[in-house]
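Researcher: Please predict.
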Amino acid sequence: MATANPAFSNPAFQEPKAGQQYPASFGSPSLTPPAAQTTVDAAANAQLEGAFSGPPAGSVETGRMTVEDTVYKTIGLFAILVVTAVIGWMWTMSPVTAANPTPSMAPWLIGALGGFVLAMIVIFTSRKKVRPAPIFAYAAFQGLFVGGISAYFEYIWPGIVMQATLATLAVVGVTLALFASGKVRASAKATKIFMIAMIGYLVFSLLNVVLMMFGAIPQDQMFGMLSYKLFGWLPLGLVIGVVVVIMAAYSLVLDFDMVQQGVRNGAPRAYGWLSAFGIMVTVVWLYVEILRILAILRGNN
């Protein structure tokens, strides 16, 4: 099934064709002489009996991707993000004094640019080999971005970061619970609608940024066209934001589905890092959208 998250575009997360899976060995296929077949069968039977009598093998023993190992890797990436988010927060607020009440936007911009470049590196190099180092660096830069933008918004609207964090955790928790219970699943039709909506949102966002850069939108409109009001009272950003949060939640469903598909396909263990990276991309997107919705609501009062 197609997914909007480019981290899961790797063949390891796609539906296998004709039952094809990753081979047990990633080297050249071994050719067993017919004369040795009996010995091989006996050894295989002994190994199978030993597998059933011993403890269950995990990702380390099998070298394969598992859901549990992917969860640990995801937690590890978010731990890196939290550490650098604290640094980004302190960096943003460091120049704030009575004489200079303006927070720094440097960590916000550096984190966003560095995160984008590293995301492209991870996406385009992972088709050949998954390297954890760029993924770790991506988490660190995303931490700077999240910490910087959070501190900036918190300075303007005190308490907004806690609200956004709790709302994000609630959406992720509910989505995960519904997916685990089997009540929510990705479908081809819903995914097609999601992809169309995603393209439309990206085009709108790009147009909004261009108009803001060239001064086509009044400077008092902090979020560009999103600050416009429908019917004279309803912020356009609120309407679009709610739709985008629903899209991000569905993107999480797609991410979880891709993780399960990778496990079923017997993807190598390193692909757990790629899955964790994809989930982080979606969760950060969700957090930023919720943060912007709350900012629009707070600024509208």
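Model: Residues 238 and 296 are 7 Å apart (CA to CA).
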